[in-house]
């Protein structure tokens, strides 16, 4: 099958143009049509010679994201279930904040990490997305915002899948997002979240970008983390923390720890005490997330008072901590929930 045009960086488009024997400036025109004018076909690239458009059409294709479902929350969050060319489905979420519009993108169809509180892993991993399939989610979101004269101001790679198990595609996507001739989204307005794939964390630190890094931690020790996150058996807690320290030392940037609070499982004061001891001297921020109810997982939410107590314990350890404001709770906006429902329907 032909590759997606969104798979290519500007440099790769420049190389392709050179191979075709065309004028070098054509690459910039193509990039502009893709990310500034945001066209949906090569025929719309009207300042290109017909011969170049035909070569593009012969060599590449656009990503087709078919809208299967769309749900809008009372808080303005919009969740899409998009169909791909091979009948797989992915989720993309637009979140509206008072500081701008954020898009949550997916990097894999499904997930193999196996976190016991997450709907994304139901059904396992089907395949990786290409860079272009990740790019297309943001372009589609921007097209939705265009009539309102608004723009995508930030991106979180926190949708379904483990981005650091699809590292090259994720990095290709990120480079296109921050390119000044592309969507030109500031690196500091992008966050990539990982469950703790240590070799990729080290590699990402060595990229030395300004892109934010978040780690799904969810427990203060190996025993509990392995029960909640089987990936901990591959990359133990101590190794994840050491990789975090390496990232901080290498980049000078603060790291974020995502901690999903699960009633009676990892939300007791003693868990907070233990976590505080691990993190108290690190340049970090803890984001407490009241767990979303997933019927297949049978976990319950931590009571409100217990959430605040957990926060207080960490603060006493001088750990910077906030409680995530929930968005899209009424439309199953947590990762994988909408796709899981769709899978139930399509598989009978």
Report strand order across the widest sheet.
Answer: 1-2-3-4-7-8-9-10-11-12
Percent of sequence in beta strands? 15-25%
As for the CATH topology of the largest domain, it is: TIM Barrel
For the record, the CATH architecture of the largest domain stands as Alpha-Beta Barrel
Q: What's the average pLDDT?
A: 92
The CATH homologous superfamily of the largest domain is named: Aldolase class I
Rg over CA atoms: 21 Å
Low-confidence stretches: none
Task: Give the structural class.
Answer: alpha/beta
Query: Helix content range of the residues, please?
Result: 25-40%
Secondary-structure element pattern, one letter each: HHHEEEEEEHEHEHEHHEHEHEH
CATH class annotation of the largest domain: Alpha Beta
Your description of this structure?
By secondary structure, this protein is α/β, with parallel strands linked by helices. It has two domains: 5-59, Orthogonal Bundle (DNA polymerase, domain 1), CATH 1.10.150; 66-346, Aldolase class I (TIM Barrel, Alpha-Beta Barrel). It is built from eleven helices and twelve strands. It has helices at 10-19, 25-35, 50-59, 131-145, 167-178, 198-207, 222-228, 237-251, 269-279, 304-316, 337-346, and strands at residues 66-72, 78-83, 89-97, 100-104, 108-110, 125-128, 152-157, 190-194, 212-216, 255-261, 284-290, 320-323. The strands form two sheets. The chain has a ten-stranded mixed β-sheet with strand order 1-2-3-4-7-8-9-10-11-12, sandwiched between helices. The longest helix has 15 residues, at 131-145. It starts with 9 loop residues before the first helix and ends with a helix.
């Amino acid at each position: 099958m032909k590759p997606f045009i969104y798979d290519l960086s500007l440099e790769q488009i420049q190389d392709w143009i050179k191979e075709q024997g065309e004028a070098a400036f054509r690459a910039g025109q193509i990039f502009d049509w893709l990310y500034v004018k945001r066209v949906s076909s090569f025929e719309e690239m009207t300042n290109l010679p017909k011969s170049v458009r035909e070569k593009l059409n012969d060599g590449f294709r656009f990503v087709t994201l078919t809208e299967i479902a769309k749900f809008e929350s009372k808080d303005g969050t919009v969740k899409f279930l998009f169909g791909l060319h091979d009948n797989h489905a992915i989720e993309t979420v637009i979140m509206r904040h008072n500081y701008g519009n954020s898009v949550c993108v997916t990097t894999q169809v499904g997930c193999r990490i196996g976190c016991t509180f997450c709907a994304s892993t139901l059904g396992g991993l089907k395949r990786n997305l290409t860079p272009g399939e990740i790019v297309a989610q943001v372009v589609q979101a921007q097209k939705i915002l265009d009539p309102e004269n608004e723009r995508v101001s930030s991106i979180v790679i926190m949708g379904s899948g483990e981005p650091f198990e699809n590292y090259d595609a994720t990095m290709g996507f990120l480079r296109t997002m921050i390119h000044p001739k592309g969507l030109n989204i500031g690196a500091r307005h992008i966050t990539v979240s990982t469950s703790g794939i240590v070799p990729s964390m080290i590699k990402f630190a060595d990229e030395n970008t300004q892109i934010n890094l978040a780690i799904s931690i969810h427990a203060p020790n190996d025993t509990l983390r392995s029960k909640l996150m089987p990936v901990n058996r591959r990359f133990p807690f101590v190794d994840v923390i050491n990789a975090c320290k390496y990232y901080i030392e290498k980049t000078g940037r603060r790291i974020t720890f995502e901690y999903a609070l699960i009633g009676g499982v990892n939300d007791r004061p003693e868990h907070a005490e233990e976590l505080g001891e691990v993190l108290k001297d690190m340049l970090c921020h803890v984001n407490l997330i009241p767990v979303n109810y997933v019927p297949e997982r049978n976990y319950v939410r931590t009571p409100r008072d217990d959430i605040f107590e957990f926060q207080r314990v960490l603060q006493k350890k001088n750990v910077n901590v906030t409680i995530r404001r929930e968005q899209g709770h009424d439309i199953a906006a947590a990762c994988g929930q909408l796709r899981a429902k769709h899978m139930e329907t399509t598989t009978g």
